[in-house]
Amino acid sequence: MKSHFIALVFFLISSLAQGLNPKCATQDHGSNLQVFHVYSPCSPFKPSKQLSWEEDVLQTLAKDQARVKYLSSLVAKKSVVPIASGRQIVQSPTYIVRVNIGTPPQTMLMAMDTSSDAAWVPCTGCIGCSSTVFDYAKSTTFKTLGCQDAQCKQVPNPTCGGSACAFNMTYGGSTIAGNLSRDNITLATDPIPNYTFGCLQKTTGNSVPPQGLLGLGRGPLSLLSQSQNLYQSTFSYCLPSFRSLNFSGSLRLGPTGQPLRIKYTPLLKNPRKPSLYYVNLVAIRVGRKIVDIPPNALAFNPSTGAGTIIDSGTVFTRLVQPAYVAVRDEFRRRVRAANVTSLGGFDTCYSVPIVAPTITLMFSGMNVTLPQENLLIHSTAGGITCLAMASAPALNVIANMQQQNHRVLFDVPNSRVGFAREQCS
Ligand SMILES: *[C@@H]1O[C@H](CO)[C@@H](O)[C@H](O)[C@H]1NC(C)=O
Ligand SMILES: *[C@@H]1O[C@H](CO)[C@@H](O)[C@H](O)[C@H]1NC(C)=O
Ligand SMILES: *[C@@H]1O[C@H](CO)[C@@H](O)[C@H](O)[C@H]1NC(C)=O
Ligand SMILES: *[C@@H]1O[C@H](CO)[C@@H](O)[C@H](O)[C@H]1NC(C)=O
Ligand SMILES: *[C@@H]1O[C@H](CO)[C@@H](O)[C@H](O)[C@H]1NC(C)=O
Ligand SMILES: *[C@@H]1O[C@H](CO)[C@@H](O)[C@H](O)[C@H]1NC(C)=O
Ligand SMILES: *[C@@H]1O[C@H](CO)[C@@H](O)[C@H](O)[C@H]1NC(C)=O
Hints:
Blueprint: H1 2-17, E1 32-37, H2 53-76, E2 95-101, E3 106-113, E4 119-127, E5 143-144, E6 166-171, E7 174-187, E8 190-204, E9 213-215, H3 223-226, H4 228-231, E10 234-238, E11 249-253, E12 263-268, E13 278-279, E14 281-286, E15 289-290, E16 308-310, E17 317-320, H5 321-335, E18 340-343, E19 346-350, E20 359-363, E21 366-370, E22 376-378, E23 385-387, E24 389-392, E25 396-398, E26 406-411, E27 416-421
Parallel strand pairs: 3-9, 4-8, 16-25, 17-24
Antiparallel strand pairs: 1-2, 1-11, 2-3, 2-7, 4-9, 5-7, 6-7, 7-8, 10-11, 10-26, 12-13, 12-27, 13-16, 14-15, 14-20, 18-19, 19-23, 20-21, 22-23, 26-27
Bound molecules: 2-acetamido-2-deoxy-beta-D-glucopyranose (7 copies).
């Protein structure tokens, strides 16, 4: 008893000494992966320079802006190659999970992205990558795919100079190049043999998540397609609030253990962009009032790419101008009290404490009412509070701050997305 206690104390102290929260040491089990915010004490990607709250918000907004612009241009472009992994981005890999790659396993902290299909990791010798790389020479099961392999047809810009299936693509503000490869990976305790991913040899720019990307989109080269037998294209996550950095959320893969009581809305498919998770947002309520939004601001249109997507990589929800203005004006009217100021791209900020109305996203068949914690950001000093939404050029994006502390279930076989409140931080 006593020795257990001492062991526990020692464990706590040694964890603290490493700057780690005790929670970081716990292992992933079954088909459940812990999800960490990039600024979590468990993450090695915390900015080295401590930013002020305002600087941090402005930087996040700028990265978000780039991601949203890119997502919008993607869906609008008529010439987008219909296949897989192409021109995706993560401007801000907000949430990371542990993935074990190779034999023996090497652990990488990969960014989770629902709007991307591809998985890729920086490999030994990669020019422009961070210092943590996958050392493929140490894995006895690693294999570089050749041009004759069927999967080579699914990568963007394949080049077959040597025998390897080499590819390159743009990713946000970056370009990445590598060879299509295969190895066994393990997610929590689930082995996934012969997983096809990109082994990066070169990157430029700074949009590349330092230890790689785990795409959770639904295109042909995605994790969902490659683990079809195991996970049946079903997963859910609960994202921890970025205000409670000591907590981890969870990524639950496969149909087992998913919530039974959950509200659903149908998933829509845009043939031009098969990997994106489109849904039908039909109206928005501020408090009890349904605001007046022109129907075409929310309508799904596969030929222009307009509509609404659920995205794990964007931080703050974006609505196209007429929808955003309607929501914002009603929000301001309800808050009434004080003078409105702005902070970067946020135009509805207050320098006095406010009581905010809820905002309800009304999807077909499902209303999601967001409480204050999903709507407002507060400066650490308490000086300023902002409505954490902004306007977008062409596409409505339901972003991760508005999903925090909800279980979001992607049920691709039944073509639906579920939402339920769940306190995961
Ligand atoms: C790893 O992959 C190889 C083929 O690349 C396969 O034969 C082997 O069974 C796998 N090992 C494990 C432990 O899954
Ligand atoms: C990308 O691939 C194309 C061929 O598909 C090649 O012409 C181009 O030089 C490559 N770009 C980079 C940066 O490697
Ligand atoms: C990737 O491909 C290039 C050229 O095809 C080759 O020089 C390089 O050795 C390959 N790297 C790996 C890890 O297979
Ligand atoms: C993995 O690939 C190896 C050889 O490439 C093959 O022998 C094995 O059957 C494959 N395993 C699975 C589960 O596809
Ligand atoms: C996080 O955990 C550390 C160590 O366990 C503790 O010192 C710190 O106060 C915690 N922070 C929050 C916001 O709970
Ligand atoms: C609001 O702004 C007006 C004009 O700038 C100013 O006179 C007034 O004191 C402000 N009110 C508060 C509560 O800050
Ligand atoms: C959503 O809320 C509206 C009232 O604002 C109600 O009429 C509608 O039935 C609700 N939809 C669902 C699916 O509960």
